[in-house]
């Protein structure tokens, strides 16, 4: 069997895996990306017409990373939607908080980007790097570590060997799992994961609104869960939004079924408008409305000998703060930063000390975000009168207290914690 060698094998070619491949590829590493997804279709119409269902809310820190990698200019020339304001309120009370970019002197609080467009921008840059190899439409069926002669023949080192469904094998001293929340590589490596069912499912769709969104992201906390209207700019108009509605699984199934018929879509639009308190007027649903269960996961460790987990393979959280892809991009940036620095010092590939530094920098920070999302869900999901009163007082109080409000805006911008250099 073929045992082609690379410096690093990245399993998973999504946004996080592709970003890591680009970071390491630019640094001169021999990178192999193994992705179960087939090769993407041509990008001629990306960023045109109806927006894609899957979008990401990128923070300023993530934008700076993509700018440094020369991905952002191409993506932005197609279609991105900046939002300058955020409104969050309790639909069952009077508590509300409003954020504005002017309050911290920035142009935007973040950008909504279609995932297909972001992937195409990353792929375009990766194609310019001859030291990055892309294996698409293949799956990893086995993983093991083997002793092998070091490349200078002086000693022996432990390499990762993965077997693909084609029967071929690939070898590298470093391997990264970027293969999603149900990560097959994480399972093959025997890394346990803590799971917490949230009791909710997220419905996603795209809508057209009667009132322009004005570059403001809106989120209402309803009795069954948060409803988010994420602003999209289409052909220069601000009358489109991407929807993420977190609700009970039964309600999610009902909402998904409504989108199957013209009459049902009209009813879904009425319910969306009502859920948002009619703030954007009538709502027209213009796409399907699939749903997916919301489960928070956290790997009990991010690293093993010569192996690291990033993105959803390491952690997945409730979408109410829109931080999932941003946390993954920070994982990739920190991991690449540690590896590139260590290699300049002559450290061997797979040095466990490098991996431990990555885990130390990222795991606690991600755990804090997971805990915050769990706390928010419980606070706003509670029907207890005392808690409902407290959360309304809290929202209104923070809205009036500018120092705390500025701190929360900086959090929304991704400007907190141990930021890697390329995100500053």
TrEMBL record:
<keyword id="KW-0285">Flavoprotein</keyword>
<protein>
    <submittedName>
        <fullName>2-octaprenyl-3-methyl-6-methoxy-1,4-benzoquinol hydroxylase</fullName>
    </submittedName>
</protein>
<feature type="domain" description="FAD-binding">
    <location>
        <begin position="6"/>
        <end position="369"/>
    </location>
</feature>
<keyword id="KW-0274">FAD</keyword>
<dbReference type="InterPro" id="IPR002938">
    <property type="entry name" value="FAD-bd"/>
</dbReference>
<comment type="pathway">
    <text>Cofactor biosynthesis; ubiquinone biosynthesis.</text>
</comment>
<comment type="similarity">
    <text>Belongs to the UbiH/COQ6 family.</text>
</comment>
<dbReference type="InterPro" id="IPR018168">
    <property type="entry name" value="Ubi_Hdrlase_CS"/>
</dbReference>
<keyword id="KW-0560">Oxidoreductase</keyword>
<dbReference type="InterPro" id="IPR010971">
    <property type="entry name" value="UbiH/COQ6"/>
</dbReference>
<dbReference type="InterPro" id="IPR051205">
    <property type="entry name" value="UbiH/COQ6_monooxygenase"/>
</dbReference>
<dbReference type="Pfam" id="PF01494">
    <property type="entry name" value="FAD_binding_3"/>
</dbReference>
<keyword id="KW-0503">Monooxygenase</keyword>
<dbReference type="InterPro" id="IPR036188">
    <property type="entry name" value="FAD/NAD-bd_sf"/>
</dbReference>
């Amino acid at each position: 069997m073929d045992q082609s060698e690379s410096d690093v094998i990245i399993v998973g070619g999504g946004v996080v895996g592709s970003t890591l491949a680009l970071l390491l590829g630019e640094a001169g590493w021999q990178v192999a990306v193994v992705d179960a997804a087939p090769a993407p279709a041509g990008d001629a119409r990306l960023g045109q017409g109806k927006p894609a269902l899957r979008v990401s809310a990128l923070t300023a820190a993530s934008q700076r990373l993509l700018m440094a990698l020369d991905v952002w200019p191409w993506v932005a020339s197609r279609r991105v939607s900046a939002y300058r304001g955020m409104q969050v309120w309790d639909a069952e009370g009077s508590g509300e908080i409003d954020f504005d970019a002017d309050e911290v002197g920035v142009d935007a609080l973040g950008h909504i980007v279609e995932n297909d467009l972001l992937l195409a921008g990353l792929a375009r840059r990766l194609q310019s790097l001859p030291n990055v190899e892309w294996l698409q439409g293949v799956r990893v069926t086995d993983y093991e570590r083997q002793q092998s002669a070091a490349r200078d023949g002086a000693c022996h080192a432990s390499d990762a060997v993965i077997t693909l469904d084609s029967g071929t094998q690939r070898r590298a001293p470093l391997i990264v799992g970027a293969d999603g929340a149900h990560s097959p590589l994480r399972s093959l490596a025997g890394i346990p994961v803590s799971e917490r069912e949230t009791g909710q499912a997220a419905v996603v769709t795209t809508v057209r609104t009667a009132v322009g969104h004005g570059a403001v992201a809106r989120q209402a906390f309803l009795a069954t869960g948060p409803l988010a209207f994420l602003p999209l700019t289409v052909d220069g108009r601000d009358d489109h939004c991407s929807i993420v509605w977190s609700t009970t699984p039964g309600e999610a199934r009902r909402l998904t079924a409504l989108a199957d018929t013209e009459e049902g879509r009209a009813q879904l639009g009425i319910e969306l408008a009502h859920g948002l308190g009619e703030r954007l007027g009538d709502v027209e649903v213009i796409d399907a409305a699939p749903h997916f269960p919301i489960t928070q996961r956290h790997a009990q460790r991010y690293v093993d000998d010569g192996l690291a987990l990033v993105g959803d393979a390491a952690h997945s959280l409730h979408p109410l703060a829109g931080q999932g892809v941003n946390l993954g991009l920070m994982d990739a940036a920190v991991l690449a930063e540690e590896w590139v620095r260590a290699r300049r010092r002559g450290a061997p590939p797979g040095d466990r000390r490098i991996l431990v530094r990555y885990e130390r920098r990222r795991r606690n920070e991600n755990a804090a975000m997971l805990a915050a999302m769990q706390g928010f869900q419980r606070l706003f999901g509670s029907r207890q009168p005392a808690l409902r009163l407290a959360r309304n007082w809290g929202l209104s109080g923070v809205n009036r207290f500018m120092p705390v409000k500025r701190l929360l805006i900086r959090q929304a911008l991704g400007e907190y914690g141990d930021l890697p250099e390329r995100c500053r």
